Amino acid sequence: MSRQSPYSRNAIIESLSFLDAPDPPRWTGKLRRPDGYRPIDVLVFDISGEFLAIPALCPHEGYHLAQCPLLDGHTLVCPAHSLRIDLKTSGFRVEKDGDQFLLPVDETRLPGTIENELGFIASANGAKGGPETLVKLREEIENLRLANLKQERQILVITQSMDAMLSESQQQQQKIKEKADQQHSLSRFVARVMDAMDDLLFVIDTEGRIRRVNTEVARELGFSEAELLGCGIDGLLPPAERQQLAGQLPALPWPVQSVLLETVRLHGNYTGEHGLLGKNRDKPAAIYWLKGGLLHSEQGKLEGAVITALDISELKDREIRLRLSAKVFENSSEAIFITDPQGVILDVNAAFCSITGYVRPEVLGQSTRILKSHMHDPPFYERLWQALLGKGVWKGEIWDRRKNGELCPMLLSINAVTDEHGQLTHYVAISTDISHQKQTEQELQQLAHYDVLTRLPNRFLFKDRFEQEILLARSHNTRLALLFLDLDHFKNINDTLGHWAGDYLLQIIAARIQSCLRKTDTVARLGGDEFTIILPNLVGIATATELARKLIEAISEPVQIKDHTVYVGISIGIAVFPDDGTDFDTLTKHADTAMYASKAQGRGMFQYFETGMNEAAYQRLSLENALRLGIERGEFQLYYQPKAACVSGRITGAEALVRWRRPGFGMVPPDRFITVAEETALIIPLGTWILKAACLQAHIWANKRAGFRLAVNLSARQLLADDFIAILDDILAETQTRPEWIELEVTESLVMHDVDKAAERLQQIRQRGIQVAMDDFGTGYSSLSYLQKLPIHTLKIDRSFIQVYRGDPASNEAAFIKTIVSLGKILDMKVVAEGVETESQLQLLQAFGCDEIQGYYLSPPLPADEFQRRWIEPAG
Q1: CA angle at 222 for the pair 216 and 227, rounded to the nearest 5°
Q2: Contact of 216 with 200, CB cutoff 8 Å
Q3: How many helices (H) and strands (E) does the chain have?
Q4: Sorting pLDDT into bands at 50, 70 and 90, what band is 215?
Q5: Is 91 exposed, middle or buried (0-12, 13-18, 19+ CB in 10 A)?
Q6: How far apart are the C-alpha atoms of 690 and 678, rounded to whole Å?
Q7: What three-state secondary structure class fits 642?
Q8: What is the 3-state secondary structure (H, E, C) of 103-125?
Q9: What is the DSSP string of 67-80?
Q10: Which residues pair with 794 in a beta bridge?
Q11: Which residues, in sequence order, are CB contacts of 874 under 8 Å at separation 6+?
């Protein structure tokens, strides 16, 4: 065992591990040499309190000896080739220092000596054969050392090469890291640029799936990036637009994954207007201007496309508004022209050209003075410019001149237009031709104050002038006469010849009245056939009397209306200011009262107002009120006058006649109240009651006497009322009256109110199976034409023709009766004679073939109970 030299230092055994499984336990570690050579794996054994170290690898084949057992307590045998190592003779003594071992090493030893000596010792202990074997072992050790040295050098070269490669690798990694950092920085920069864009940006792959979006997409469409990534871009297009793009694609040899991508690929670069659907599908899709470009790799391979979308909804709205404004400008019916601040015309629309007669090139660059009419004074234009310069707007009526020199009234509106700095840039004028409006105003003024037919002042202008004349008469202390004129029998002209003839007659009468007046007098038509005349500046009443007589004479002259010569009269009522009243209402009322008094005296006359006339008017008003109350209280009852066959005398029916038992006045005859009822329309409720009461009575008597028919009179107002047929149906249903039990009588004058409407109503009555009789035939304007037109079953000869017959069959009266009976036979109508009172009248009617008679010869009108006892019950 070698000894320590004074020139030695310790080698440390590191990385110690204690192995307690082998027998005996031992330590394994690495001997770090002071010469810097690689560490040596060693084993340390505790042999009788002395610590000995040997190489851990067998020097022959390098087998690790850590698990090899000891023989004899100090000999280690290699299991690979039975090499023996005696620890006592071959081991190096080591010292334990805490948790490590120290091996004293001589500094004079060359590098590798320790390892060689350890190996040599191990070999010597295991060798057999003496000095030759030892020499061989030493040679082998030397060779091993040289090989080890060579190996160490190779390892050094490899290590240096690896260090160089590692250094280069680290440099490459650094460059890659720097490049990755640059790429990452660039990516962040690109992302910031994308997010800074106002446009929406989509990056899609070759299948149209969204791979990247900017933040503007989320802000405008409401989708997060995670919701869109991987979704098809086509899903954001409205279905109609997807279908439109698909229809524009040609046939492709590959399946279409995205119509938008294929459209971009087809055009290379694509632009177009499209809507994009947001997350909120209830919100209308905004309009975007889409730009699409293909995305290729560095090698030219298609990787997808980049789509940008600019929201142009506001631009489209502006475009639409501008387009609409242009349409309004061009198609407006009002003239529109635009000028600069100096009034030079810059543009005009079609309506301007149409209204003024100028063509567009003739007025562009011209001053608006080209339209000046010279109808306005300088102050007018001063006020116009003051309003424009002060308020920026002027509106009013102005007279312009057309190209042909014609003047035209215009409603002009001028507005100043300023820029964003408030500087005046233009004037916009809108002008409306109000020629028609002005004409209409004149016509309305005429209509408002003048009668359309006669061109005379109407009621409104008459009142205005009359009140002015009252003021003048009061101030000048003079009299004033008011004349009310009403034509006599004017209605007959309308009924026989038609309304056109009546209108023509009114025009002739108006002209005749005007021819009788002074220039200071005023004539007005109040309506219908009523006229009024104002006579101012009267001292007495002689002038009014003279005029009244002159008017009666002039109007009574015949009037030729085509082939007809007609005669009319006039009734005049006169009231005088201030004798008969001092205000408009009083004087007009008194003049009207006097006019009705004139008619009552025989027509064709004039009458001054008298105080007693007010009493007559009061009596009429009182009668109207009592009549109204009597209908409500049921003060009326029906009387019945029988009708019989002219030859046999058999009772065939009766006529229902109304009577009024007025409390305190007794029985009021019909001629006292029927006219008032007609004029006040009270005949409608009264007639309805009569018809219902008669139907109830007809139901009773028809069941007791076969063929019995009850006649009921109808008034004009009643028949021509819109709801009459409905009322008739209700009464028939309510009273269970059969149509053959009743007959409805109408007069000629009733029918002539409106022949066409009356014919329609009578036809509706006949369709229900009810017979219709023409009452009072011969007293009106009988005409074969309307008799043939109307659905009449029976003609009733008016009592006046029967009563004038005095027993002479050869008289004119008899001939007239015969004519009516013959007419009825010709028209296949039943003829009934009213007012038969004598035997001679009956015999005449029998001789002429009259069908039935009615009158006092048979019986006066009787109450229902008495009529039943006398005429119904005997038949039973």
Answers
A1: 95
A2: yes
A3: 29, 37
A4: confident
A5: buried
A6: 14
A7: strand
A8: EEEECCCCCCHHHHHHHHHHHHH
A9: TPPEETTTEEE-TT
A10: 773, 830
A11: none
Taking residue 148's Cβ as centre, other Cβ atoms within 10 Å add up to: 18
**712 and 653 in contact (C-beta within 8 Å)?**
no
Q: Shortest CA distance to 852 belongs to which of 655, 704, 650, 714?
A: 650
Cα 94 to the chain's mean position, in Å? 112
Cβ neighbours, 10 Å, residue 419: 9
Q: How many CB atoms lie within 10 A of CB 99?
A: 6
Farthest CA pair distance, the chain: 208
SS3 assignment, position 730: helix
Query: Tokens 């002739």 — which residue?
Result: 508
Burial of 72 (0-12, 13-18, 19+ CB in 10 A): exposed
The tokens for 496 are 């026989």
Amino acid at 229: L
Q: What angle do CA 79, 83, 87 make, to 5 degrees?
A: 105
What amino acid occupies position 166? Answer: L
Instruction: Taking the CA atoms of 620, 625, 628 and 634 in sequence, report the sign of the dihedral they define.
Output: negative
Q: Which residue has the tokens 């637009």?
A: 241
CB 715 within 8 A of CB 723: no
Angstrom distance (rounded) from CA 653 to CA 741? 9
Per the DSSP assignment, residues forming a β-bridge with 636 are: 660
Q: Tens digit of pLDDT for each residue in 478-498?
A: 889 999 999 887 877 777 778
Tokens (6 digits) for 618: 């009061």
Question: Residue with structure tokens 């002259």?
Answer: 557
- Residue 654 and residue 797: Cα distance in Å, rounded? 16
pLDDT band per the 50, 70, 90 thresholds, residue 612: low
Q: Are 57 and 64 in contact (CB under 8 A)?
A: yes
* Sequential DSSP letters for 826-839: HTT-EEEE----SH
Instruction: Tell me the whole-structure pTM to 2 decimals.
Output: 0.41
Backbone angles phi, psi at 327, to 5 degrees: -65, -45
Identify which has the larger pLDDT, 788 or 85. Answer: 85
Residue owning tokens 């109408």: 746
CB 594 within 8 A of CB 574: yes
3-class DSSP assignment, residue 435: helix
Distances (CA, A) of 187 to 183, 292, 308, 732: 6, 21, 18, 100
Structure-block tokens of residue 745: 């009588």
What per-residue confidence (pLDDT) applies to 713? 92
Looking up tokens 């201007």 gives: 289
Residue keyed to tokens 């004519």: 819
* Amino acid making up residue 107: E
Residue 118 region by backbone torsions, left for phi larger than 0, else alpha for psi between -120 and 50, else beta = alpha
Instruction: Return the DSSP state at 251.
Output: P
The distance of Cα 504 from the centroid of its chain, to the nearest Å, equals 50
Phi, psi of 223, rounded to the nearest 5 degrees? -90, 145
pLDDT tens, residue by residue, 767-789: 999 999 988 776 655 556 667 77
**Paired tokens of 857:** 């010869």
Helix (H, G, I), strand (E, B) or coil at 783: coil
- CB distance 119 to 61 below 8 Å: no
Helix/strand/coil (H/E/C) assignment for every residue in 115-182: HHHHHHHHHHHHCCCCHHHHHHHHHHHHHHHHHHHHHHHHHHHHHHHHHHHHHHHHHHHHHHHHHHHH
pLDDT in tens, 235-283: 999 999 999 999 999 988 889 889 999 999 888 888 988 988 888 877 7
